[in-house]
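Researcher: Dear colleague, please comment on this protein.
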Amino acid sequence: MKTLIVGNWKMNPENLVKAKEIFNLINKKIKNFRNKEIIICPPFVYLTEFLGKIKNNKKIKFGGQDCFWENLGAFTGEISPTMLKNLGCDYIILGHSERRQILKETDEMISKKIKAVLEAKLKPILCVGETEKERTEGKTFEVIKNQIQEDLKEIENCKLKIENLIIAYEPIWAIGTGRACQASEAKEVLLFLRKELKKNYILYGGSVNSQNAKDYLKTGFNGLLIGGASLKPDEFAKIINFN
């Protein structure tokens, strides 16, 4: 079983020159990748450049940061799973807390997207997690269970390969704050998720860096979803190159 290391660049960097510089440095510094699947999810505008010119790259695969639930149509500003697949993507991040909170994306919308991505034979990375308030009130498991149930409604009666769904536990209070969830606390959520989804890959995300990455993997997570550190070639390479 390969360890998944996913870099979510979010809306960074500000131009293609910088994007290529970051990617080339990461590509150069990666050494220990044989038992790992390394996925970079850059902004859509950089995907064509990367996928068009790096077709034979054996180290890195690519993913989208989101998609729409239809493959074609009058949906201004959207991009479909089929478009991303035709570019050469293998993965798509869905339901990230920034989209849920800032862009008001609902579980119903996310559920439609998961179905569309699985139908396109791509692998969705579904993000779930609780706010600090929900955590303080002891609602972590309730929130996550509800997210999973609602987000998977569209595929309940479909003959789609549910095992291709990847879950990323990202406590919202830890994302981009530098306050990483302790591995022991994250393990409790991992065990809960493992009861719900026995065959699926489960990742941890939220202020992951080269100092704490090993702790999450030793705890039993199948990989990591990394934000800010994935834009720092030295830091990202350290996370990838561990034995």
